[in-house]
Amino acid sequence: MLGLQLASRPLVHHRLSWSFREICGEDAKMKFNPAIVSILEESSHAQPIEVPKDKLLGDLLPTGFDESLFPEKETVFHFLGRYLFHPTNAVWGLISRYYEAYLSKADVTVGIQIRSFDATPDPVIVDQILSCTTRENVLLEMSQQEGGANSSIKQKKKVSVLITSLSSGYFEQIRDLYWENPTTTGEVVAVFQPSNERYQQSEKQNHNRKAWTEIYLLSLTDKLVTSSSSTFGYVAQGLRGVRPWILSETENQTAPDPPCRRVMSMEPCFHSPAFFNCKTKRGIDPGAVVPHVRHCEDRSWGLKLFQNHSK
């Protein structure tokens, strides 16, 4: 996984941040940020404000914005991203050559995005990935039986797994596990990693080209697993238009249970919403203001668009 500065926030999220600065000023934003936790606790049972059906996003969008363009609210980033993010010829060459060589002939493709800055792979995260993918039927379980349970099947499905990470360690461990152990159903699992840059180098153009390539390749996979709070994964899921499984954050070197969860919306999470209403001079829960905006699975204070507030 590589570093890339992309405008991965939906228009509604971008507007939230700017409207706060316009009304309150930058000093107010800095002043009230420490109250975020207490505001969320006090507002945990807040009910959405009643708004007209034709104004489901209220004042969060710029004047003149036609909400009918997005009848399904969680598709805003998907359609805008597909319309606005076009790879250059050089990047498209990287994408198309890699896809044709490693992914195009697979029956099923799986993308796993691992956001870790450690030089060596964390065994807890490796176990977490395997637990998540097998429990959720994203990847096949490995068999203890020599040769596999269905090794005699002639027409075996091929599963290609694309791993993106700064480190090559996660790729190597997962690749070796599926090489050294057969799957319980006889399918063949091939694991690939386009690059391993070791550390983020956002100031280098070639590094950013590879990052954009890997984001796009992830968006071409059938099933997607992403890291918590990662804009890299947000963009991939948004372009693909799927709800990925998101890996839970580890605590004290302990694998979380459950290891991952399916997100409620394909939209990216905006990590820095405003939590203070300057007109009323009090804190608010921005996740309870309008029906189609609520808090994220991976950032409890973040916001994202989704289709149905009642679910």
Automatic annotation (TrEMBL):
Task of the protein: May be involved in cell wall biosynthesis.
Gene3D superfamilies xrefs: 3.40.50.11350
Coiled coil regions in record: none
Short name of one Pfam family: XG_FTase
Bilayer-crossing regions: none
GO biological process, one term: cell wall biogenesis
Entry GO CC: Golgi cisterna membrane
Similarity field: Belongs to the glycosyltransferase 37 family.
InterPro entries: XG_FTase
Domain of life the protein comes from: Eukaryota
Protein name as catalogued: Fucosyltransferase
Molecular function in Gene Ontology: galactoside 2-alpha-L-fucosyltransferase activity
Keyword terms: Cell wall biogenesis/degradation, Glycoprotein, Glycosyltransferase, Golgi apparatus, Transferase
PANTHER family hit by this protein: FUCOSYLTRANSFERASE 2-RELATED, FUCOSYLTRANSFERASE 3
EC number per UniProt: 2.4.1.-
Protein topology in the membrane: Single-pass type II membrane protein
Subcellular location(s) per record: Golgi apparatus, Golgi stack membrane
Lineage: Eukaryota, Viridiplantae, Streptophyta, Embryophyta, Tracheophyta
